[in-house]
Design goal:
eight-stranded mixed sheet; alpha/beta; Arc Repressor Mutant, subunit A; 2 domains; D-Maltodextrin-Binding Protein, domain 2
Length: 291
Amino acid sequence: MFDWENLRFFLAVAQTKSLSGAARALKVDHATVSRRLSALETELQARLVDRLPRSCQLTALGRQIFTLVTEMEAGAFAVERAVRAEQSPMAGKVTLSVPPVLASNFFANQLFAFRQLHPEIQLSLASQSQSVSLGRREADIAVRLFRPTEPSNVIRKLGEMPFALYASRHYEHAGKPANWGFITYEAELAGMLHQKWLLAAAGDRKTVCEVSDITTQHAAARTGIGVASLPTFIGDQDPALQRLAFDGEAFSLEIWLVVHVDLRHSPLLRAVIEFVVDVVGKTFETGAVET
C-alpha cells in the first residue's frame, strides 16, 4: 500500500503543472514536493509525471490517476462539509474571503461589533482579490464583486457599491474639468470593468499616474495629484476629498455573498452570514435575494 499523503503532493503538481507551483500551494519547499512525488512513483512502480525544465506534464497513466485522485479529494472535502454543517455549538473559526477594497475599508471596521455579538466565533478575514474555492475549503464564505457562477454554491446579492469621481480639496483643477488629470490602473488591469469605465470617463484627458488598487488610488488622490474613481462609501467619508460633478454614465459594482450548498444551514456559518447581510445592507443599496 502506498502513502496516501503522497497523493496530495501529486495532486498539487498536477493542478499547478510545476514543482514550484505545488510547493507554493502546499507551503513547503521545492525539494519536499520532488521527494514526495518520487516516493509515490516508486511505490506504484510507474512514472506519473514527466519533469520538464520549466513545467511538469502528466503521463497517460498520470492523467488517469489525476482523475481518480481529484474524485477522492472532492469526497474528502464533502466529508468535511457534512461534519461542519452538523456542528451546532456557536463556537469555532469561520473564514470569510473578501475583496481587498472591502476588507480594509469596510469589514475590518466591523470586526469589533461581530465579536461583541459572537464572542466564541473567531472570524478570519481573508483579503483576496482572486476567487477562492469554497468546495475545496479555501474559505467558508465569500463576498465577491461580481455574480458567482459555480453550480455548487448558493449566492445572494447583497447590494450595489456605487462609485464617483473625487479629488483633494486642494486640487488646483477641481473647477476646470477640461484640465483634470486621472489616476488610473496599471496596463495589466486593462480588462477590469472599473478601469474601462474610468478610461471612458477620462476620455482624451491625461493620466497622471497608474496604480494597482483602489486603496492606492485613494491615497494618491489625497495628495492632490489628480482625480480618482472611488466607492462613495470611501470618498464621501474622507474630509480631505471632494466629490466632483460628473454628468456621464454612473458606475457601480454588485456585491454578492457566496456559501457552499452543503454549508448554507450550518448554525456557525449562518451567524456570520446574517451579520454580513445586516452590515452590508446598512451601508450599501440592498439588492434582490437569489439562490
